[in-house]
Give the backbone structure.
Amino acid sequence: MNAFASFMGMVYMFIESCAMAIENIMQNRLRSFLTILGIMIGVTAVISLITTISGVSNSISSSFTSMGAGSLTLTATGSDLKEGLDDDDFTRILALEHVRGLTPNVSVSCTVTSGKTSETSITATGTNAYYFSVHENSLKSGRKINSIDTENMARVCLINKDLVESFFYGVSPIGQTLYLNRLQFTVIGIFESDSSVASLLSGSAKILMPYSTALKMNNASLVNNLTIYMDSANASDEVEEELGTLLDEIFSYEDDTYTITTMDSIEETMNTMMSMMSALLGGIASIALVVGGIGIMNMMLTSVTERTVEIGLKKAIGAEPGQIQIQFLIESFLLSMIGGLCGVALGIGLSALMCHLMGTNFVISYGAILLGVGFSAAVGIIFGWSPARKASKLSPIDALRRM
């Protein structure tokens, strides 16, 4: 019974301390608001930055998945004996298990001319028929590059919408003539770049042509860059290992003759960078919380000075130092938590707005919310401890002298 009575006494004391803390906060509305504002800004900054970066990271991961699921890129710098890959090497690569196709990527810088219109430094990319099998939606009109075009090094090309507007505004470009580096080409189609790996490798390519034609324009016979497609994204490691074995054989086991890049490795690197950026910005934003904590300490020290007589009276009628200390700690904690909760709401709203403006997915980061609330609670306790301890150590006699 005594234990129960003691417990209820502690509960009543806690409730009473909370009520007194709220009353004191309400009596000093402006000062309390300015103190809360510091914590609120800090929590808002932490949550909005971390949540926005999380949304950007998720969007990037989704893009990588759509770009590179079931594909890898090969850059073959070659050896002293062989500086790239030829059609026979392509056949050997296609014979590997789980490889369903490949597309060469040969870049050519062109000066494009038609009539009196001319543009310089236009990027053209040489590819093969398989490119259009993988990216069916890239062809908007006309026909695709086929195997006959590649075998005959045909001077045919597809152009994007920018070149259509520049050279054939108001006229169908299909069947029209373009001069690329003074060589006559026939336009056979219009394409639109997508988010595929091959499209990324082609950079700002505005023209597609048979890769054999592109090699001839570069006075080359070997390909240095390929996109290899697999029948399953889960076979990436197996294909990478088998491909490495084959390339070692092709390049006579010389070192540094090729680089194999998978979307998994790129995505992993990107996620690591985003995590570091999130931690860095979160740390910077946390400085605002520390500043807010200093504001809480300043307010509580001022409050202790103003309430010296009140503290003396409480001690004179039997209040323990621990009870005085708890009361001031509760007040500091409430100030911090009010600012923290307001900051959470404002941070979520701000991050949602930022994600919308950036065109990325908005995903609530519960980790960021826990970090913001936990940090604000810790700030309230840590920075409120010194003023609370000062209040608990006041001598009743010295306090009552100020009456």
Q: What stands out?
A: The first strand starts at residue 71 and ends at 76. The longest helix spans residues 263-306. The mean pLDDT is 80. The CA atoms of residues 174 and 188 lie 5 Å apart.
